[in-house]
Structures are given as structure tokens and as C-alpha cells.
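Residues determine shape. Take a concrete instance:
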Amino acid sequence: MTPDESEALLRRSLEGVALTLAAVWPVFKECARHPVEVVEDALLFEGGFYEFYGRLPEDYSLHLCRQFIHAEEAEDEDFEQLSLELIYRDVALPVVKAFWSYDFDNSLEAFFKHAEELPEFSAIHAKTAHALEIRRQRI
């Protein structure tokens, strides 16, 4: 699978899905399990208040990201991120310290398990988001 195909799969799979982590998380997990033809593939999970992409200071963002690295040499690093973001407005939610699949020797199952065991995951799980955004960008 290519990064383009991965993005298309994610977008297709999220059509009509409720704006909750409970509904989005299984889709993210399933899409992440499809291998992508790149040098390296990593996942990121984080949540908090970020004022980029036009966010309001009070907007809470739960960010699920898949990073594709295209070059092997660090000085030639060419990578892009496919991000799925749930945006919550007017709701108090806990900040989730960022962690990568690298932190778990790139084990997807260990990464998923860690996320699901966080108290913050449970606190956010059933809350309805204001919006869902999917974005892919070269870094």
C-alpha cells in the first residue's frame, strides 16, 4: 500500500462515523495495520491544547498520526504525516502526553494497548467532538 492509498482508506473508512474516540479509534487501528511501502512507518498519540491550524486556544485536540519516512539517511529525511484529529470545544479534557510507536519497539499492539489503558483515554472515549479533521502534509 502507498501513502496515497493509506490516506484514501482512512478517509473512506471514516465516512459517516460518529465523532467520538470510541468510533474513530477502531478505524485508526485497522488502517494502521495495513503496511505502507516506505522506509519507516510510525504512529503518534497525543492530546491537548494546540494553537496551530487555526485552532482556538480553548479547542482541545486529540491527535492520532501516522508518519511515513521516505529516506533512510537522517540528513535526507523526507517524511510526511497523515493526521486524524478530533477537535473538542467547550469541554474539559485531560492533556495526553505524546507517545510514539517507537516507544514500544514499533509494536502496534503494544502502542494500542498503552493508549487504551490510559485514564485519559477512558475520559475522552465517549465524548462527542466538535469536528474531525484529516490532514496529510510533508514535513
About this structure: Residues 3-14 form the longest helix (12 residues). The chain has a mean pLDDT of 89. The first strand starts at residue 40 and ends at 49.
